[in-house]
Write a structure and sequence with these properties.
Helix content: 25-40%
Strand content: 15-25%
Radius of gyration: 34 Å
Distance between the termini: 72 Å
Order of helices and strands: HHEEEEHEHEEEEEEHEEHHHHHHHH
Number of strands: 13
Shape: extended
Length: 483
Amino acid sequence: MSDSDIEEKMSTGSGAVESFDDNFEESPEKTPEKLPPYVRGPDAVDISPLQDGGVFKEIKRPGAGDEQPMTGDKVFVHYVGTLTDGTKFDSSRDRGQKFEFTLGTGNVIKAWDIGVATMKRGELSVLLCKSEYAYGERGSPPNIPPGATLVFEVELFDWKGEDVSESKDGGVVRRQLVKGEGYLTPRDGAVCEIHLVGRHNGTQFEDRDVTLILGEGSEVGVVDGVEQALKKFKQGEKSKLQVKAKYGYGAEGNSTHNIPPNADLEYEVELKKFEKSKETWEMDTAEKLEQSEISKNKGTDHFKVGKFHLAKKYYSKIVDMLKNEESLKGDEGDKRNALLLAAHLNLAMCHLKESNEVDAILSCDEALKVDPKNEKGLFRRGTANLNLQNFEEALHDFKAVLEVDPENKAAKNQIVITNHKIKQIRDREKQTYAGMFQKFAERDAKKEQSQPPAETKLSSESTSSLESDAVVEEQPPVVEASA
């Protein structure tokens, strides 16, 4: 955590050191626990970047393996913090809960970012931290005096890379090798120059320089997982990526690279430089309309080859650019409405291709706000409702199509199909009920054979009543297609 934020983090217990200010004030007679003062041993090493003695590390128990956490990893540790005289001011062990933080991002004091980055899994070490690498000249009263040198015993348990997938499902995990520069990151539309190394099960299948427009990586063979990660990169950054199959080559695999179906991939990616794309708010009306037309054409190209998830990206860009441009009039207003209508309709078709009927209906609803009598919007919404077995809604939509175009053969055919499905369901219901009544009748017949005549008469009446009820249950006629 940054020095400016540290006191607040300490007092809330969410930082590297949790203060016990409240307990201290409420119980002034209670003195902090005192441990034996730490004496720096001969094996302590200066690990400060400037070799100025600001951070010494002494390993008490070596860790396993050679791997160490990287910038951006979430690390899990236990720690005990003391002053140089042994006064304990904080301990995650006392709380019985491991502390976790993101390494190398300024979320903890400088000494921690430096020291934990040198540790291995399972390692137990002591960090001796001068004030300029801890809480500075201000300290954190009343528990940490101004200019205090601090001692932390830290045990590193584990770490994991940063999930940079858009859906946060662990499908794209980043581990930084080299930090980037500045604060800017590329967005969709940015021109990125990258170096890309891809591996599957340790075997390298590509090593190349690539220039791509972010969001259009598939056109130059860059998988979706790499594109999602690049949106988190800063210029000059180099990182390792673990990409799950759904963000790589998916169920199809890639025969050119000998990647089998459903294969997870590993990449090493360097963002050499990028040119920032214009934000929507930076565009004038003409630019928005022009970019929307380009996006529509690119989306259609992807749709034609079955890349529906990529097609949706482009159609969604149109919606984002034009949805708030209701005030446009004349030719510009007409063009805006035509592009927005096409985007919603095409999104609906993509959703139908992916069997996502709920989102297809939502897209059709948006299209019909632009043009309430649009045949494609009504027909596609009807198709989605039919697939969901919302038969009444489906019939309503298909009949609405015929009101616009009485000769629409597809709508007439869908009405016939819908009525047929309704009839099938009702026939199944009748068979189910008939079977139930037959079982009741057989049961009552057995009772007639085993019970006295008086009781048999009652049972017969009961059966007759059930059969009578069954006759009364008439179903409404099937809706016919209108001419």
